[in-house]
Structure formats: C-alpha cells, structure tokens
Amino acid sequence: MDAIVIKESIDIWAVVGLGALTVVLLLFSGMASGSEVAFFSLTRSDIEGFQTRNDNTAHRVLDLLANPDRLLATILVVNNMVNICLVIIATQLVDEIFIFTGVWEFIFNTIVITFLLLLFGEIMPKVFTQANPARMAAFFSAPLKFLRWLVYPLAFILIRTSSRVSRLATKNAEISIEELADAVDLTETGSEEEQKMLSGIVSFGQTEVVEIMHSRVDITGLEYSQGYDEVRNTIVTTGYSRIPVYGDDLDDVRGVLYVKDLLPYIAKEDDFEWQQLLRKPYFVPEHMMIDDLLKEFQKKKTHIAIVVDEYGATQGLVSLEDILEEVVGEITDESDDDEDKLYEKIGERTYIFDAKIHIGEFVRAIGYEDDAFSDVEGHAETLAGLMMELKRDLPRRGDEMSSHGVKFFIATMDGRRVDKIKVEVDG
C-alpha cells in the first residue's frame, strides 16, 4: 500500500542545514526572476529618472542596462543554476524527513517541489516586482553587478552561442509584405491615424507611381507661347508653386516653371521671355515604385516629375507631397479647399467619390483589401474606369452598378466624363 512515513530517526542538524540552504536558494531564485522583470519593464521615464540622479545606485542600474544581452544572460545563468541546486537540495531535505512508498515519492519530489519553486521563486517575485520596477531595479543592482562578474564566462558562452544560432535561424528568413500587413492589422495603436500611417509604411515599397499621380486631365499647365500676363494670372488663380510647360500638347512637356524663379521679374511687361527660366523636366515611368522615386527626388533635389507611359505619352504628374501623403495621410495647407478632396463620407457606410480617384486609394478608403476588385477592374486605374468595366459601356448619370457588396451610383457628369460617384458599402 502506498504511504508516506516520517522517519523515526531524523538528523536535526542535517534538516536545519538543508532547510536553511533551501530558503537561501529560494530567495536567490526569486531575486533572479524579479530582477528580470524589474530591469526589462523600465519605461523611458524610469531610465531618464536614473540618468538625472548622481549616485552609485543609479550608475549601477545604467551600467547594467548598457549591455542588456549580458544582463539577461547573467540573470538566466544564475536563475537556472539556482533552480537546479534548489531541486537537488529540496529533494535531499524531503528524503531526510520522510520515507516514501509507491507514487508518493514522485508526487513530492516532482509536483510539490516544482509547485513551491514556481510560486515562491517565479510567480510571486515577478508579480511583486512588476508593481514598482524602478525601485526593485535599484534594489537588485548591487547583487546583479557582482553576479555579472561572477558568471561572466558562462554568460559570454551563452551570448555567443545564442547569437550564432539566431544568425543561422534568420539567415534565409524573409517576411512577406502580406505577413507584415497582417501584423499591422493585428497591432493595436493609439489612434486610427497611427494605424493608417503604419499601413502606409508597409505598403510604401509596393506602390507604383501610377497609383498616386494626378492624371493627365487634372494637370494645370502653361503653353510655351503664352504671354507673361497670362502666366501670372494662371499662377495667381491656381496657387501652384511648380507648373509644367508644354508645346503643342501635354505630350510635349518642355520644362517646369518654378514660381520662385519669377519673383525677381514680377513687374516685367507682357513681352518678358519667361521661358528662359524653365527648368529641365524630370520624366518617370508610370510603373516606377514610389520608394525608388523618393530616392531619385532626393538625389536630383527636385520635387516634381512628369509620368509617362511606354510610348512616352504624358499620363500624369507626381510630386514629393503625393509620396509623403502615402505615409502620413492627406497634407493640407491654406491654399487647399474642399474641392481638392477626392472623397467625402456622408453616412455610416456611404461616400461621395471623385471619379478620378485611383482604385487603390478607393478600396483603402472603404476598408477593403487592395485586390478586392482585381477580378473586375480589367485595365482600369481610376474609379471612373472601374465603372466602365462594370457596365461594359460609357456610364451615364443615374446609372447604378453593384460589385463585391458595393453599390455605385453615377451622381454627376462633366460632359462625357464621370465626375462624382455615390458609393454605398453593405454593412
């Protein structure tokens, strides 16, 4: 029959010695566990508080934090060595007091001792330390600095080994954009603006110029043959600081006029040859990635580019501001007005979109995935083009179409061109 029996003859001094050693080891285990939480839970304000102090304790804490890998290795080495010794000593202490038969020896030496070790050596110290990590870090700094010196050889081996394993494990590891985007979606940030910014950063390297450019029909340009008075009127009316200049049409862009270059000649007569101030235009392909374009902007010290297709025809215009808005969101200034907005939310799931908005920006605005309409959009790049693909004909005012849980209503037309589209997203 299984039983636990207390020994008739117990060596009191052995029990006292082993018991005292068990308590000491349990305290060391708690210190190691608590110090890990204390040091690695310090906030920026806690660290700045230590930096403003001029005492030995603060210097010790900052010295330990200066090499976090070595600090963590020291804590792990000490904690594991102490726990191993603790299990051995505790088992001997139990054997000095009790005689076991059957499964009781397993229960005591494995389950009970492990439970006590976890409770007093891991859980309670961590919970207690978490309440005030700065104070506990200061308290543990002196013994930890001594232990860091004591176990340095073992800690050094642990750091080198883990670094080598980490390099081997991550050597061929690659994170796809989809996985990174999923991680961003699962991230809880302080505001919707921060979430949008993170999403913009993730998709930044996967966005083409054609997705953010101003289309050809929206370009405000100057004819090369225009008089100076007309040029000044255009500048005042539009408020643009850089305006492309073309010859016969927009496929013949001859340069870009920087308004600041006109300032010394602002009072000149209508026959002033303003064309001599043109700067050389910078042409980019429509499928160029915007992160590459940003690098080119920095390299060439320019802020504007003319977007052309494979045949060299002008497709649109892109600026540095357009690129930055992909990350930080819409940038507005005193010259912007409500007419420049590409969409307006008028209900819980109802919007009014400018038909020229790019499909990628449209799907993001309504909370859909970037490829949500990839099976129906064909070669369309704008919302107006998507309407033509859905109808398979020229859209007219009042037309209604549906796709992927979204209802489209052609609200207004500008001649034969779709102007505004009302969109209702199913809840």
General description of the model:
It contains 16 helices and 14 strands. The model has no long low-confidence stretch (mean pLDDT 80). Helices cover 51% and strands 16% of the residues. It is elongated. Strand 12 and strand 13 form a beta hairpin. It has four domains: 168 residues, no CATH class; 31 residues, no CATH class; 122 residues, CBS-domain (Roll), CATH 3.10.580.10; 85 residues, Uridine Diphospho-n-acetylenolpyruvylglucosamine Reductase, domain 3.
Number of helices: 16
- In spatial order, strands of the major sheet run 10-11-14-13-12
Number of strands: 14
Oligomer: single chain
Helix fraction? 40-55%
Order of helices and strands: EHHHHEHHHHHHEEHEEHEHEEHEEHHEEE
Please report which band the strand proportion falls in: under 5%, 5-15%, 15-25%, 25-35%, 35-45% or over 45%: 15-25%
Shape descriptor: elongated
Distance from first to last alpha carbon: 68 Å
Provide the residue-averaged pLDDT: 80
**Main beta sheet strand tally, sense and closure:** 5 strands, antiparallel
In terms of structural class, how would the helical and strand content be classed? alpha+beta
What is the radius of gyration?
Answer: 35 Å
Query: Residue ranges: pLDDT <50 for 5 or more in a row?
Result: none
Produce the secondary structure layout:
Layout: E1 3-6, H1 12-40, H2 44-52, H3 56-65, H4 68-97, E2 98-101, H5 104-130, H6 133-150, H7 152-170, H8 177-186, H9 192-203, H10 209-212, E3 214-215, E4 222-223, H11 228-238, E5 242-246, E6 253-258, H12 259-262, E7 283-285, H13 290-300, E8 304-308, E9 314-319, H14 320-328, E10 343-345, E11 350-354, H15 359-365, H16 383-391, E12 400-403, E13 406-414, E14 417-425
Parallel strand pairs: 4-5, 7-8
Antiparallel strand pairs: 1-2, 3-9, 5-6, 8-9, 10-11, 11-14, 12-13, 13-14
Helix pairs in contact: 1-4, 1-5, 1-6, 3-6, 4-5, 4-7, 8-9
